Amino acid sequence: MADILISATSIVLLVLFFGTINGMRPKLPSDKGQDESDDGICKSMVEPQNYVCEEHTVTTGDGYILSLQRIPVGRSGGTSVDRPPVLLQHGLMMDGSTWMLLPPEKSLAFLLVDNGFDVWIANSRGTKYSRGHVSLSPDDAAYWEWSWDELVAYDLPAMFQHIHGATGQKFHYVGHSLGTLIALAAFSKQELFGMLRSAALLSPIAYVNQISSPLAKSAADIFLGEQLYWLGLHEFEPKGEAVGKLLNDFCNQPGINCSNLMNIMTGPNCCINSSTMNVFLEHEPQATATKNMIHLAQMIRMGTVAMYDYGNEDDNMSHYGQSTPPAYNMTSIPNDFPLYLSYGGKDALSDVKDVQVLLNCLKDHNGDKLVVQYRDDYAHADFVFGFNAHEVIYDPLMAFFRLH
Ligand SMILES: *[C@@H]1O[C@H](CO)[C@@H](O)[C@H](O)[C@H]1NC(C)=O
Ligand SMILES: *[C@@H]1O[C@H](CO)[C@@H](O)[C@H](O)[C@H]1NC(C)=O
Ligand SMILES: *[C@@H]1O[C@H](CO)[C@@H](O)[C@H](O)[C@H]1NC(C)=O
Prior knowledge:
Elements: H1 2-17, H2 41-46, E1 54-59, E2 64-71, E3 85-89, H3 108-114, E4 118-122, E5 132-133, H4 148-167, E6 171-176, H5 178-188, E7 196-202, H6 214-225, H7 227-231, E8 235-236, H8 241-251, H9 261-266, H10 274-283, E9 288-289, H11 290-302, H12 313-320, E10 339-344, H13 352-361, E11 370-375, H14 382-385, H15 389-403
Parallel strand pairs: 3-4, 3-6, 6-7, 7-10, 10-11
Antiparallel strand pairs: 1-2, 2-4, 2-5, 8-9
The structure holds 2-acetamido-2-deoxy-beta-D-glucopyranose (3 copies).
One 2-acetamido-2-deoxy-beta-D-glucopyranose (NAG) binds next to loops.
Signal peptide: 1-23
Organism: Punica granatum (Pomegranate)
Keywords: Hydrolase, Lipid degradation, Lipid metabolism, Signal
């Protein structure tokens, strides 16, 4: 029964997620008249669960205006004094609501605050509540002129400085998926440690050339093969027509069965039930820059963790002062920085073989500063929406934070 529900939901996901396939778009409860969530994440997702919530904004060095939510105290009240802050950084095509899709006793954001932490929720540039800019609009091509290099160079430092300034404390970091890559990249440049106590990386992404997701691999080939066309779109809008066509072409290949698109993309998630999927669809997926997708496609093809490749020596030279894009050196992450890594045996984006390459870079890490957790049954999305993640992932994660 649960299987049937999940696969029925996935057909809805397929159509809705990517919008215009065959011109179909089912009417869902969330489609009614006004969109309540336009008030922001505090109003739409946090306050209805009876938590205090503060909306913050941060302006990055390159002009993007990002929203951050803070849940300073648990449902039982109290003060935010002596609560270690934690920043939650979502992954690709997600936003801050990712951490609140399950009921409070199962969602990481609420679980942390009810366990004595001061919770901060990041929303990367281009997502629904972080589309402001001091001079550009998302309708301008220039607004989308970035890849995850800029999340490392601008978004993370701006949010980190804001949280550090507001709390006067060092904090913990939790990243999922792309949220792990940008942290690892910053750490490899010896940046941000001064404000951090530790980091927990769920579904870690660094090396991705052994990725097993057929959809991600196929998309990477298409992005690189038709790079000029894709870059011309600037905004990568998952519900837009171009992505709908890409998906339609992908799903019509022999041997490809798109009845469960979430699983085709992220691996066979063990532990996501249909009610969670419906909540997910009300909030995600979110837009990103096409340039960001091309950058990830380059990594899938090249097997490197390096900055965006402009594709010819002259352009690389003018951006970087060298003919090849500078690498992020994962072996230079300091050995004494406390890291908690959790990865899954069924994850099609954070493939076990790729995680082994990353772990090999961390082989000299101090034994008492590195915890590696492996869940055989988990795929990519289980780490954030799994109905048992609170027991199998978040409890040990919070125990790790308490030690650091
Ligand atoms: C695709 O997979 C679903 C669920 O596993 C199955 O019910 C369906 O028959 C498959 N379709 C094809 C064309 O193989
Ligand atoms: C699915 O999740 C909801 C919300 O956590 C829960 O109430 C329900 O019992 C779950 N269903 C199954 C089949 O696990
Ligand atoms: C990466 O960093 C390590 C440790 O700092 C260093 O030994 C190694 O030479 C670096 N590799 C490259 C390619 O720069």
